[in-house]
Structures are given as C-alpha cells and as structure tokens.
Amino acid sequence: MAALAILTCRPNSHPFQERHISLTEPIKVGRSVARARPAVNNGIFDCKVLSRNHALLWYENGQFYLQDTKSSNGTFVNNQRLCKGGEESTARDIFSGDLIQFGVDVMENNRRGDKITHGCIISTITLYHPDGREAKPTPFLNTPNLPGITIQSQDLYQLAQYLQEALHREKMLEQKLLTLQQLVHNTQEASESGWQALIDEDKLLSRLEVLENQLHIYSKNHSEDTVRQECVTLQEEKLQYETTAKESLRRVLQEKLDAVTKLSDLERSLSNSEEECGHVKEMCEHAQNELHQLAEKYQEQLAAEKELKDKLQEAEQKLTEETDKAEQEKHELTEKLEQMLQQEQSLSTKVKPGSLTSL
C-alpha cells in the first residue's frame, strides 16, 4: 500500500470535491489546463488564483512533505506562508489535521464594473502512512504522573483555527453589510429618480391636455387656415412631448427593473449573510465550549497535583516523626544496656574466687 493524503474543502474555500491522493510519487498541485483536469485522485483544481505548477506533495522516509514551487500567490501551512512569491520554498513537513492553503483571495472588476472575488483553495489535510496509521503531530503537553487527561497540540490548534475562521467570517460579514447598505442607498436613489420621472410624465400629460383645450378654443375663434397651421404646430409639439414622455417612461421602467434586480440580489445576499452569521455563531459557541472544557480539565489537573503535594508533605512529616521516635528509643535502649553492663561488672567484683572453690 502507498501513503494517502485526503484534502477536505473548508467552508471559506473555493469549492472543490474532496481529494483522495495516493502518494506513490511526488504529486503536483496546480491550476487546471487543457491537458490536466481536476479529478478526485489528483491535485489539480479549477481555481484562477493557483499557478500551473503551484506546489509539490510527497511522502519520504516515513514523513510527509509540502513544497511551494515558485507560485505567484503562495502556499500556506497553518496560516504560515512557506516563501515569498516567485521563490521556491524548502520542503516543509506536514501532519494530519494541518490547514493547507494554496493561493490567496483575489478581487477584480468585471466588464460592468462590479467587483468579483476569486477564492483560494483552503483545505484540511488528513495523512495516512502506508501501514494505515494516521500521521498525527506529537503532543506538546503531557502529564503522565498526574491522573486525568492529556492535552494535545492538535486540540489547541483546532481551537485556534476555529477562532481565526470566526474572526475572518466576522470581517467578511462586516464587508457584506457595508455592501448591502450601499445597495439599499442606491435602490433608494433609483426609486426617487423613478418617482421624479413619473411626476414629470404627469406634468407632460397635463400640458398636452391644456394644449388640446387651447386648440379647441382656437378652432372656434380663428379661421380654418390659421387653425390648420396651429394644429400642425400643436401636433408637432404633441409628438415631441409624447416622444419625451415615452423616453422618460422607458428610463423609469429600466431603473425600476434595475432596482428590482438589485433588491433581489440584496435579499439573496442578506439570506446568505444570515446563514453564514448563524454558522459563525455556532462555531464560536462550539469553540468557547471547547475552551471552557479545556480550562476545567486544566483546573482539575492543578487540583490533583495540589492534592498529591499535600499527601507527599504529610508523608514526609510522618516519616520525620517516626525517625525521631526511633532515635529516642535507640537512645533509651543504649542507656539501659550501659546500666546492665555496670551492674554486671559490680556483681563480678563482689563474687570471690574462694567462694567458688568451696562450692
């Protein structure tokens, strides 16, 4: 079996299908071209911000490596760029659970003057050795002598990633809210312009009605030739007014259509923003809960350590007391032994040799 790398799309990434890449040889990561198209088993992405030869991913001597191959927009591991743009980086060892980013978000203007953002590739990588073991990072905090649990770097790093993503989404929401406010302002201006055009149209119609009344009065008070000439003049003015009114009405309808379109886009953007806000809120709450749990576990381990220290101090105190007691008993026994020796000597001096022979 060969080593395996799985790239999972992050919510803030340019969308792509999850990749399962077999690392039998160094795998190229880059932008799709005519001869290299995206697939579930390669590192080619349909993303404009990637270079054709963006990076290399391979497995060697039990370790996974990633290298930037002179890309324009850079390669990032856990939000750290490997090298400057246009330079080739050194090989960077990576682990399962790392956040891998290829390129950066790029904003450009389209033909209509609107700004379009081209997203980059952001993924969570999962790595497996040829024997099926996951290539996890080494824990940096371990307390084997204390009861409780072990806090690993992956947990804290995942928590930091959640917080960074929440901050990023908060900034994106602020930008979208500013855009929404600008769209609402433009829609209000377009509506005011439409109402003004309708008012002008009403004025033109009223003017036409007044002219028709004047024409009727002139037909009674003037000769037929004069009336005919006046009619021709009025017809020309009427045609001119009607043309102006139709043009104004066309502009009003076009502005109204643009306003309706912008309002629809605004509603969709607002719906997407609310969904993203809800998602960010859930992630923030989840991150806060995890942080609270880690803090509680840390306090529990501190309490256990304090309890062990108290027990150790109590045992040392008991050992000191027992040692003092043993020394005192030894001293007393020594004194008794000396007394018994003195008594034995005194008895020996009192006993005479003649008394022993007589016996």
Report on this model:
It is a single chain. With 359 residues, the protein is an alpha+beta fold. It folds into two domains: 4-136, Tumour Suppressor Smad4 (Sandwich); 177-305. The chain contains three helices and 13 strands, in the order βββββββββββββααα. The strands form three sheets. A six-stranded antiparallel sheet has the order 2-1-13-10-7-8, with no helix packed on it. It has a five-stranded mixed sheet with strand order 4-3-5-6-9, with no helix packed on it. Strand 7 (75-77) and strand 8 form a beta hairpin. The longest helix has 127 residues, at 224-350.
- Tell me the number of strands: 13
How much of the polypeptide forms β-strand, as a percent range?
Answer: 15-25%
Largest sheet: 6 strands, antiparallel
Q: What integer value in Å does the Rg equal? A: 45 Å
**Number of separate structural domains:** 2
Please write the string of helix (H) and strand (E) elements.
Answer: EEEEEEEEEEEEEHHH
Name its key features.
five-stranded mixed beta sheet; alpha+beta; 3 helices; Tumour Suppressor Smad4; Sarcolemmal membrane-associated protein; six-stranded antiparallel beta sheet; 359 residues; elongated; 2 domains
Provide the fold topology:
Elements: E1 4-9, E2 19-22, E3 27-31, E4 43-45, E5 55-60, E6 63-68, E7 75-77, E8 80-81, E9 92-94, E10 99-102, E11 106-109, E12 115-118, E13 121-128, H1 153-221, H2 224-350, H3 353-358
Parallel strand pairs: 3-4
Antiparallel strand pairs: 1-2, 1-13, 3-5, 5-6, 6-9, 7-8, 7-10, 10-13, 11-12
Helix pairs in contact: 1-2
Organism: Lottia gigantea
Pfam families: FHA
Family: Belongs to the SLMAP family.
